[in-house]
Amino acid sequence: MSNVFNVDPAGEAPPYPVLLAETRRDVMSHVEEVWKPSWKRAVLIADDTTRELFAEPLENALSDRGLSPLVCSFAPGEESKMRATKAAIEDRMLEAGVDRSACVVAIGGGIVLDVAGFVAATFMRGLPHINVATTLLAQVDAAIGGKTAVNTPRGKNLIGAIHHPRAVIIDTAALASLDDVDLRCGLAEAVKHAVLSDAALFDRLEAWARDADDLRPPRDVLTRCIAIKADVVADDDRDRGKRNILNYGHTVAHAIEHATGHATPHGYAVAMGMVVESRLAARAGRFPADDLERLVALLEALGLPAAPGCAFEAASPYLSRDKKSRGGDIRCAIPERIGTTVAEDDGTWTRVVSAEAIREAWT
Ligand SMILES: NC(=O)c1ccc[n+]([C@@H]2O[C@H](COP(=O)([O-])OP(=O)(O)OC[C@H]3O[C@@H](n4cnc5c(N)ncnc54)[C@H](O)[C@@H]3O)[C@@H](O)[C@H]2O)c1
What we know:
- The protein is an alpha/beta fold and 363 residues long.
- Helices cover 45% and strands 17% of the residues.
- The protein is built from 13 helices and eleven strands.
- The chain has helices at residues 24-34, 48-64, 83-95, 110-122, 136-142, 180-197, 199-211, 219-235, 250-259, 266-283, 289-301, 312-319, 355-361; strands at residues 3-7, 16-21, 41-47, 70-74, 102-108, 129-133, 147-152, 155-162, 167-171, 330-332, 351-353.
- β5 (102-108), α4 and β6 (129-133) form a beta-alpha-beta unit.
- α1 (24-34) crosses α2 and α5 packs parallel to α6.
- It is globular.
- The termini are far apart.
- The structure holds nicotinamide-adenine-dinucleotide (NAD).
């Protein structure tokens, strides 16, 4: 097995491998390697695009093994990441007689993995699932760590569960068909990992961004990002402490996504959010101004936006609806400087910030 990492959530969930697949054939063989004899049926969940591009060979391979795969798909996009989509998949599974001996195989980007993982978390009180990550964002972030969720009109990811996969397969060959916007979304999360905990990775991204003629990151960048995510998850698998640092940029990002009716891609919103939240910290003397300049320069070199895509007034109603919010306050996770994040004085990993401070940091 090209087992890059073992994620050990340390809680009740068993450790699971993250496997790199360089070819379509690798994806199939990894699924076969991790498949348990007790899993008698396969449920493949994709969006319409990933179903068309990637599901068929897997469906055939699982069919050949007598696993009668049921394939469920939905329209791509954040608008589909909602309770109605989850319910429609569950109804199809019930109609098809899926029971607790099934395993869910999610094939796609963060949206498919979030929805399919949530289906797996609650169907008959929980089915095992395997994540086949086909976007860069899913590969460096969403596929690992067991966070699953859907959005509601009141905010992003507000309804969900922590349900770790049994294996994660990183389909690197799939990146060949991914468009530049979606590659940039993944790069935004890679920059986030670097700012949070790896100054050398930040240097590497800067050097690569200067010379890159293609937005697909080199393998060492990909594996370093996977390692960072796996480490943070191992520290705090239930998202009660240090794992909150992964929300860097996301308080502002989620508000911008909502304010723009999800027209701002998630990674672009994260780029904007990292800049606003770091500027806020820099103005309070808690993030070096030079680091803020480097962050803006790297995002721009990667073709990511550094300025918010909507007015503060449009985003502000959503800031305190974030999951990190407690009693209506606004909380952000902000690193100390590039490569280092430390706990706040009260031992938590997020700090309360005022709406006024965010407004001042908006531009
Ligand atoms: N669970 C987590 O820990 C976590 C972490 C980060 C982000 N997320 C969530 O992830 C979501 C964003 O994920 P995303 O950026 O992967 O978006 P996505 O899942 O919508 O994928 C982007 C687009 O690319 C298409 N696509 C997927 N793979 C492809 C391929 N290989 N070739 C061509 N097209 C392909 C999809 O059909 C979709 O249209 C957000 O909802 C965010 O909240 C979750």
